[in-house]
Amino acid sequence: MLYRHSQHRWRRKDKEWNATMSSFDFIPNEEQLNILALASPFASQIYQKHTAQAQAFLGEFGFGVPIDRAGFDMLVRRFVGLGTTYYLDAINEAMVMQGLRDLRKFLMLKWIWQDALSVIRLEDLTRELSDFADSCISFSKDFVYHKLSIRYGNPIIRRKMKTLKDELAIIAMGKLGARELNLSSDIDLIFVHIDNGDTDGKKCIDSHKFMRDLGRGIIKLLDENTEHGFVFRVDMRLRPWGDGSPLVLHLQALEKYFNQHGRTWERFAWLKSRVVNDISDEFATQLRQITKNFVHRYYIDYSAFSALREMKAMIINQQTQRQDLDNVKLGVGGIRDIEFIVQAFALIYGGHHVRIAEHPACLECLAVLIELGYIDKEEGRQLGAAYRFLRRLEHAIQARHDHQTQRLPSDADELLAVAQTLGFESVTSFRSVLDAHRQNVSRPFGRMVTDRQSPKQESLNASEITSSLHESLGDDAMASLERFKQSRLVATLDDVSKERLNQAYPIILHALLTHAQLDGVASAMAALPRLISLLEAICRRSIYLVMLTENPDATVRLIPMLTASPWIAKELAHYPVLLDTFLQKRYLHLPDKSELTDILRQSLLRVEPFDDEGYLSAIRLFKKTQVLAVATADVLGLRHIMKVSDSLTFIAEVVLESALYRAFDELTAKHGFPLLQNGERAGADDCGFAIVGYGKLGGLEMSYASDLDLVFLHRIDEKGETDGDKPISGMKFAARLIQKLMTYLATQTRDGRAYEIDTRLRPSGNAGVPVISTHAFEMYQNEKAWAWEHQALVRARGLIGDAKVLAEFDQIRKQVLTTLRDKAQVRLDVIEMRQKMQTHLGTKQNSRDGDHEQFHLKQDFGGLVDIEFLAQYMVLSLSHEYPTLAIWPDNVRIFEEVGKAGIWDVYRCERLTQAYLDLRKKTHELALSEQKTIVNDEEWHELRRFVRDVWQDVLGVAEESS
To answer: How confident is the model at residue 458 (pLDDT cuts 50, 70, 90)?
Structure first.
């Protein structure tokens, strides 16, 4: 390469900049230019567009000149206009944003060119990328802190014996934490400060708000995409509680979260944590100790094996869903598989061997594991070679167009360019080497934390099973199976899929035969068409056939489930990915709400902001997976009806919470934060919005087909504007927030809707606005609401959102329900509404099915609605005397309070509760059997008579026969 004396200088106004520039420029030769053009149209365009500046930059920081952290600190100061000084008042936000982005541009040119020329080691490249990120983060923190301290003073913590200055620790996670950043990595950050306090300036604010604004300012400087590009995409989702949680938390809150809520996958993530900026020794020691206690155990951590199995199963399940061999990170035998192997050993043995914990980077940790004998030397060498190859391939893919992707290009020319950049003459030779590396990764990954399985069954004889099945089920059943085997679908399968079907088929037939022998021929015949539908759905995605082959006992359990519930059978056939939920027996433990939140949060970690398609798919898959587990437990009789409804309600609440905060985050990113009614700005922890659930959702009585009855409340200033670059009024922000949330949930996609949403119970119904203030809601309930709306309010419950809005709703609900009412008028209103519902929704009089009268479990007299109306009547007519009646939104606890208060005898309350639960249980059974909620009256006659006797006794009028 050639260098020439500079005839020009960087075109910058800053004299100090010119004074520090090298007197030699870098002049590339033709071969080097061709290599750059081949490797990266993105970098080549930078060079062509800014040739003089690029030559001057590379003259000073050439391919043979490594840059350390101090060098990057100097470059950052120079590019933002500070030169050798650190006088932050001399620069403004615009200068910082442009300077950092310009610097990234020329550094990316240098790094891409070095990598394409193979003149830099992988470890050196990733280290330089990480050091650059550290410098940008630290400078951004200093700059934003300086500006905030001028306005508010410094954040101070006042304790009994001393006063100390609060500090912000910026913790890097993932690749940046391990100093192995790639060319287009986002950076995972977590913000932690010491403790709560106040600032000492003339305009005093609490230190949490100071730190929150500091965090937001750092993110803006790095992440915002301007006409000059961006510096780093910032991802904050690994912080405790993830999206929707406060942006910054203090040290004690972090320790409490680790102790009470920290999951094994979070220990996995914190393995690579590292504080980026300078903090005091005392703060650093405290933070290090808290993190160490959470991540590592002194003893060999066998307790992690179960969780690691779950994580491995999740990786395999995601690979199965994607069927994406072209993803060099997430595909089978990809970068993630190598990282899982290394980090699993680090998690289990890192507390026992300090050296393991001291080396979080993948290649460094791998070397230590080989040295300590945890990984075979040859296998370790293969894993290291695969990692280097895949990371270089990842860089080659990302260098093309500066895109954050790990997927091989689908365009043939693009793929050839990637292959040639890596030194291959053809795509074929490139793929051959890639496949060999993947094989070398897949073998040890497959052995990692394997399930403790029973010995394999002896090989099943297909002909013997077929003969026995023929004898049990007869000609028609065998003809159906033969039609499937001879179908065009099976005939056109590729060789791999045919082989897998042939391996799975005897196991499937054995499971069907076992079911016929245990539960009878009729049961097996009911399962057969559903089994064939499932096989037709999965045989082209043959990994599911492997699942059945590898889990013969689970396959035996699958057949009775197909018999018991056509709904479950249909879900499995439409969404085979759910098969893993059943085969892994996830129905044996139904997660509570916090666990569900954690599961959804994990699944959303790789869904990028503003990727609506990815988000819609993720929440629908989450809902279907969890509901299937609940339904399976329900069919098997493993859970009480109330626990089933609790689980279905929790699933809905977790999805709602995720959707609300995602919509809020996306709107604030575009428009800024709305103004609250108290004059403060909304934030992640006080967003100003809340969701109220009515009906089954409010009463924790969700079923499988329940829609969500929702009312949206707020405490924002409707006329005040948001504080972003594209400000809008608070009312517009609110309307767009609710519209976006409903789009997330109710949009029809290939995976269906997450939920049907019904907002007709909001004030003024369909004529009302979609979201109203708590004050307007209170006025409506007190001055305009109809009697039936107060009935509905009995079953209303604040679900998720702003804590102050939820508290205000609870207060309004209590005040409205405990208002003194005329009992006679309440009685008339309840009776009138009940008659209307039966007329419009119940079965017609004298409706019969053969010799039996029909009974609509919900709408007919003596059914569910009667019991619900009795509970609502008791609350509305007596809560002013017995306020505890208004506490609960669900009928079971309302009747419990009626009994405690001595209004009714306990026997009546318990029997009415049991009748209610029996009716609900039957509606669940019918839903899973895909049958209507209309049954023969005969078996329900006694229950109906009891309910109608109570109705007559309480409301003083006999219901008309249905």
So the answer is: very low
